[in-house]
Amino acid sequence: MRVPFIAGNWKMNTTHVEAESLVADMLGRLEEITGVEKVLCPPFVSLAILKRLLQGSSVKLGAQNMYFQARGAYTGEISPLMLAELCEFVILGHSERRWYFGETDEVVNKKLKAALEYRLKPILCVGERLEENEAGRTEEVVHRQLQAALRDIEPSPGLVVAYDPVWAIGTGKAASGEQAAGTIKFIRSSLADFWNKDIAQDLRILYGGSVTGNNIAEFICQSEIDGALVGGASLKAEEFLSIVSQTKAIKGS
Predict the structure, then answer these.
(1) Is pLDDT larger for residue 85 or for residue 168?
(2) Distances (CA, A) of 1 to 5, 162, 210, 246
(3) What is the mean pLDDT of residues 117-145?
(4) What is the pTM of this model?
(5) N or C: which end of the chain has fewer CB within 10 A?
(6) In 59-73, which positions are buried (b, 16+ CB within 10 angstroms) versus exposed (e)?
């Protein structure tokens, strides 16, 4: 049985003081919610602070990005070697990285390989733009992204995939539960072709894109959807707690 997974992507929000306050508001109640894997992904500057605050708890840490080299003259970048001491997960291929910063499928592939080399667990994001969605090219785009990102990569039990459509990120326009489940079913089928059916069935696939406390149940009740990559709603303690709590009620053990 796949353990449901809720990750909060704080993006470029919260100072380290605000990050501490947000965790303080949530931690006790998050600890009470069992049967759901809970991950917080703050900005890099707060990882060390939150690692200390979360030590001994069931809440895990993730980074929002990384470079694929371990060391070198790459001003402003963060390496897997640095992250390995601070967190367990790392988001890779997020639509904002692809759209705003020009990350290609090939770059995402290099980052995945580097993350796995340093025993980080990638949350691999794939998803189409609005014009691709409207043209009926969702499956084509998602398949291409998966195939390129996973090239020459062996199956890893730590890998998580998130369907992260560009048109739903930060827009307030979420896919319907049925739409998201259909694409995630296709992703699982593609992974079965890429590796094998058993691996695909065990791998957790999330939905990300304007997830809130008001719509999480619509996604989590779908058998194909194992959780959510939550953006803006993860910055509000009560709303994030509601998302995790509803996930537990619907899908938790």
Answers:
(1) 85
(2) 12, 18, 26, 18
(3) 94
(4) 0.96
(5) N
(6) bbbbbbbbbbeeeee
